[in-house]
Amino acid sequence: MIEVLQLADYLCKDRQEEEQAAEREAVRAILADVQAAGDRALKRCTLQYDGVALDDLRIPDHAYERAYRQVTAEFLTALRQAHDNIRRFHQAQTRTSLLLPDREGNLLGQIVRPLRRVGIYVPGGRAAYPSSVLMNAVPAQVAGVREIVLVTPPDRAGEVDPHVLVTIRELGIAEAYRVGGAQAIGALAYGTETIRPVDKITGPGNLYVALAKQEVFGKVAIDMIAGPSEVMIVADDSADPDYVAADMLAQAEHDPRAAAICVTPSPALADRVARALAVQIERLPRKEIAAESLAARGAIVLTDDLEQAFALVDRMAPEHLELLVEDALSWAGRVENAGAIFVGPYSPEPVGDYFAGPNHTLPTAGTARFSSPLSVDDFIKKSSLICYGKESLLRNGHHVIALAEAEGLTAHAQAIRVRLAKEGRERNDG
């Protein structure tokens, strides 16, 4: 079920993904169909892949009303508190436009505006993800996005999970459709008779959704290409092996391709974690998924010491990093590459997934080396502002000419030279 590996063995382990050529061609065919046939293609794909024939793609109002009767009061209370936490955290990220006069009195600035229309993909399939609604819609709303459109696949009865529906209604999202897969990404990117195109698409999905986002990038913006989810837990002898095992299984139950890795310099802890995993997995309703994940991409990695463990962390740049070590906060300050860092035994990954406030949409597959969690910044755009005065142009124009001519762009230089000639002459005449 789980391998205990020396560091060298782990680094040599083949973790390459498949070429995915067949899936990519299938996605391209679906996107082309959506471009050509619009709503008809969406309904055709929904029947083929989700097994349901839909007359109307929009989620009907009565579905939301019924959903409130289907969820528990406990869920609704937890949802509203999580919403408050997430909104409060993201409100601290807001940016304002700036206008700075330079030393010559020219105005230089940056205008910050929200994107006009954003599409959010919420997965279905193996589980329902109301948390994905929160983590994608809240930063967009805080940024001031005017139009948020949500897509999510229906079940075989044509329904959407009630927890997702309640979350959509709690956030006040007015436009939501029961369509998923690559076809939904195509609708958001290209538009159909029912779904108008968006400026950016965010949200996780399966392989087909990820490949579709890759294909439409450039036509629209996307947040990231999310690979299988992953957790790396650095633990020493102070760690509780039951906590480590539970947190590894929390990751492994996501998906057979999810990765759950414990890194420790302690052979004794490694042995206790392996035994705790064997016990705890038997109690999981999603035992088969977790077992497949651990067998394919799980590992307990033995290092010489914590220094070597943290060197591995920065090399791997994990999506989720848990620190179950003594003086964990100090070690956290030394980590350069991680999507989210969970510090200490009482900060398990699910707290961040659902409730604490920071976004759970994180860079995967080592991309935390150069990218960041989803944030308010993902839903804004910035325009530079330059307002030069006549005197400044007359005084500095020859510098611009020199730089333009160095690049061989004579028309650039002439655009300055013609002003210097005319404006300088007017000043002299005056």
TrEMBL record:
Cofactor binding note: Binds 1 zinc ion per subunit.
Keywords: Amino-acid biosynthesis, Histidine biosynthesis, Metal-binding, NAD, Oxidoreductase, Zinc
Annotated binding of substrate, by residue: 229, 251, 254, 320, 353, 407, 412
One Pfam family per UniProt: Histidinol_dh
PROSITE patterns associated with the record: HISOL_DEHYDROGENASE (PS00611)
EC numbers: 1.1.1.23
Binding site for NAD(+): 121, 183, 206
A GO MF term: histidinol dehydrogenase activity
Broad class of enzyme this protein falls into: oxidoreductase
Catalytically driven reaction(s): L-histidinol + 2 NAD(+) + H2O = L-histidine + 2 NADH + 3 H(+)
Active site residues per record: 319 (proton acceptor), 320 (proton acceptor)
Pathway: Amino-acid biosynthesis; L-histidine biosynthesis; L-histidine from 5-phospho-alpha-D-ribose 1-diphosphate: step 9/9
List of residues binding Zn(2+): 251, 254, 353, 412
Cofactor(s) needed: Zn(2+)
Organism superkingdom: Bacteria
Family per record: Belongs to the histidinol dehydrogenase family.
UniProt xrefs under PANTHER family: HISTIDINE BIOSYNTHESIS TRIFUNCTIONAL PROTEIN (PTHR21256:SF2), HISTIDINOL DEHYDROGENASE HDH (PTHR21256)
Job of this protein: Catalyzes the sequential NAD-dependent oxidations of L-histidinol to L-histidinaldehyde and then to L-histidine.
HAMAP family cross-referenced by the UniProt entry: HisD
Protein name stated in the entry: Histidinol dehydrogenase
This protein's encoding gene: hisD
